[in-house]
Amino acid sequence: MKTATQASFAVLRLPLIVAPMFLVSGPDLVISAANWGVVGAMPTLNARDLETLERWLLRIRRETSAARGTFAINLVVHNKYARMQPDLDLIVKHEVPWVITSIGSPASVVARVHAYGGRVLSDVATIRHARLAIDAGVDGLILLCAGAGGNTGWLNPFAFVSELRTFYDGPLAVAGCINSGKALRALEILGADLGYVGTPFIVAKESLASDEYRHEVHVAHADDVVLTRAVTGIPSNILKASLTKWNIDPDKSAGGFHGIEPAGMSPKPWKEIWSVGQGVGTSMATLAASEILGMWENQYQGATVQPTQGEYP
User: Residues with Cβ < 8 Å from 203, sequence gap 6 or more?
Assistant: First the structure.
């Protein structure tokens, strides 16, 4: 039996969350995605102060009031993120429908969001962290699988989803190389509910990405992605070209825990060192988010399992 959260996905045009990307996702991308009919998301961190965050939340609320889709706000819940509680206060004040927690336990968030009827999704990279999030009462999990852009996991989605489905029947979103409508259909066959998609939307017209970042995404291939701890102190998938430009050794690890934006570090992640997923080689020309989603919808609707032709040698 589907949970209430899983049932709510049925209204979406595609089973997809446009993932929150640091310094890339802003109100324009969130609003466009929600109005088209999927979940648009952004991190609180992209608003550089609380006044800007509140202004953005008011605008998103106003401009998605009749949307078929909805919006989510991503909150870093690590205890070293000084703005966590003030950001959460604004999330609660404006009753954000979906809250995505990252880099820490969602336990301090769940009760406050549930109190106004919101839902909490927690991103997790291991089975152990998935169990902890479930015990904390989250409404769904976002699986950071091998190949996802930015701070990432290392488990193959086939292993991750199948093991979770032995003890968890709630909502699952999958991050990592989801780069077409066909991939969304494949996730459903695998047993997941949603794709969690970032890299293809870095080049969307509504993205906050710089022209240089967009260019590097356009010309990059899977071989140009490096998994490294050198940027944030935790495993992250980064464009090799941006490491080379700043003479950063991908085999070295940044000291301590930074997660998002190491204080005083130069060059600045993710402004001058760029993250991408391994699916970057299929990124398309700069289009509006609605155009990208429209193509994915056609791919998704046309995706069927084809019988194998002939025999393997």
Answer: 209, 214, 217, 218, 283, 284, 285, 286, 287
CB atoms within 10 A of CB 19: 31
Q: CA 109 to CA 105: how far, in whole Å? A: 9
Q: How many CB atoms lie within 10 A of CB 213?
A: 23
* Rounded Cα distance, 274 and 231, in Å: 10
> 224 with 209: CB under 8 angstroms?
no
Give me the mean pLDDT over the 126-138 stretch.
97
3 state DSSP class of 45: helix
How many other CB atoms are found less than 10 A from the CB of residue 92?
16
273/304: higher pLDDT: 273
- Name which of 279, 192, 295, 272 is nearest 237 in CA terms: 279
d(CA 60, CA 311): 53
Euclidean distance between CA atoms 31 and 71, whole angstroms: 8
Q: pTM of the full predicted structure?
A: 0.90
Contact 124, 151 (CB under 8 A): no
Return the residue matching tokens 């700043």: 246
Percent of the chain with pLDDT over 70: 89
Average pLDDT over every residue of 115-138: 97
What is the Cα gyration radius of the chain? 18
Place of tokens 């825990």: 257
Tokens of 135: 């015990």
Side-chain half-sphere of 45: how many Cα atoms within 13 Å?
22
Spatial separation of the C-alpha atoms in residues 65 and 238, rounded to whole Å: 36
* Phi (first) and psi of residue 123, to 5 degrees: -85, 140
Q: In terms of C-beta density within 10 A (0-12 exposed, 13-18 middle, 19 or more buried), how is residue 313 classed?
A: exposed
Q: What is the pLDDT of residues 137-181, one digit of tens each?
A: 999 999 999 999 888 889 999 999 999 999 999 999 999 999 999
